[in-house]
Amino acid sequence: MMFGTISAAALELGDFLFGLVTFICLMLLVGKFAWKPVTKMMTDRQSKITGDLDYADKSKNEAKELLEKRQGELKNTQAEAVSILNTAKANGEKQSKEIVASAHEEASSIKNKAQADIAQAKADALNGARDQVADLSVTIASKIIGKSLNADDQQALIDDYIKGLGD
Fold first, then answer.
1. Which of 29, 53, 67, 137 is buried most deeply by CB count within 10 Å?
2. Cβ distance 134 to 156 under 8 Å?
């Protein structure tokens, strides 16, 4: 019976040693063939993740710079729009003043022309009246005096009569 116990203990020890040797061999094989590729793969993955993070940071910074640039351009565009509006307003006011001044000038010109036309019509009317009065005066004088007047006498009578009208 003892032999069976020794043999079981020896078997257990043999199994243990076989398992231990197999485990060590397996570890050496895994270390040589699997560990290096897995480590390389993990290192590559870490490098890729680090690169992706760096790219993301770079993209974020570029986006931030682009945003700041666009905001600056927007401010410039708004300033330009305000400038254009102010210029257009100033030009509009200038044109409005020019139009009003032109209208006043034209109205003044029309008024002056009308006054000149009135003065001319008045002068024409006075000349016409003077001629009629002169003819009438000569006719009346001829009848009163009973004789014909020569041209110089007629002119003197007319001038006297007109002087009398002006007073």
1. 137
2. no
Cβ atoms 147, 119 nearer than 8 A: no
For residues 87 and 95, is the Cβ–Cβ distance under 8 A? no
Count of C-beta atoms within a 10 Å radius of residue 134: 17
1 half-sphere exposure, CB direction, 13 A CA radius: 0
Model confidence, pTM: 0.39
What are the pLDDT tens digits along the chain (167 aa)?
A: 444 456 777 778 888 899 999 999 998 888 888 888 888 888 999 999 999 999 999 999 999 999 999 999 989 898 898 999 999 999 989 999 999 999 899 989 999 998 998 988 888 888 887 777 777 776 766 666 655 667 777 777 777 777 776 65
Cα distance between residue 97 and residue 77, in whole Å = 30
Distance of alpha carbon 86 from alpha carbon 13, whole angstroms: 102
Q: How many structural domains are present in the chain?
A: 1
Q: For residues 9 and 12, what is the distance between their CA atoms, to the nearest angstrom?
A: 5
